[in-house]
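Chapter review: from sequence to fold.
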Amino acid sequence: MCRGKIFFFSSHFAGNLRCLDGATVVSDVENKHGDYSNRWRLCTVTQVEELKILIRMFPVWATGIIFSAVNVQTTSLFVVQGRMMDTSIGSFRIPPASLISFNVISIVFWVPVYDRIIVPIARKITSKERGFSELQRMGIGLFISVMSISAAAIVEITRLKLANKLDLVDKPVAVPLNILWQVPQNFLMGAAEVFTIVGQLEFFYDQSPDAMRSLCSALLYLSTSLGNYLSSAIITLVTHLTTQGGNPGWIPNNLNEGRLDQFFWLITALSVLNMLVYIVAAKRYKNKTSS
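The token string follows.
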């Protein structure tokens, strides 16, 4: 009976990870002593299948860490970049940190556009109730995040060229390039959040074991936290490596003599690699189905 249950659940849920099925089989030790209470030696079929679901979700969840490391740039290096740009519009000066408002505006814009326009069009093409699956939605968001950080790199290249042209490389002053050039990168990152983060929430809730939905939904916030730590670690490592031999490094106090664009391209490369890993993980992922 036990082995029949194992086959039934495995065919519907896992299709692999069958090595874990042995945890549900009563061994000679349990039969001899008649003690089946040790959960480290004997598990129920449901517990094993829930573990399989979590293991299959792990690669998809892990790719969210790099996305969070990219997303955190909107409140860190995007602001640092904006402080070295022209923040004036007539007599009004825009605080560099306030450019993140375009990230929020983008979210407010894309949420109804996605629900009212994109989903109905996608529904006709894919014949899916939600238009896109959660995995497809996350993949689109990862691609948009690559575009966002690439836009930031292009703006920085333009800013550095202007600083060199005006002989401002050795001067820690703002370059006469209007800060509104940062709007596209912030707007794109807002769109990436709408696709990726909402997709992650739906994915973790729908695909998690029924008894662990609240816990699995919290995985999103765990990936966000790890992404913040990863971003700090990358900045620390890059600063250490690029300041060897007395060089100013990629991210010095005076950005005019730095290479912040190179850092943005590095993050872009990591994002592209992360997206490729995600595509592989998404293709290999098997949706949870009801018995």
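Two observations follow directly from the output. The longest helix spans residues 134-165. The chain has a mean pLDDT of 83.
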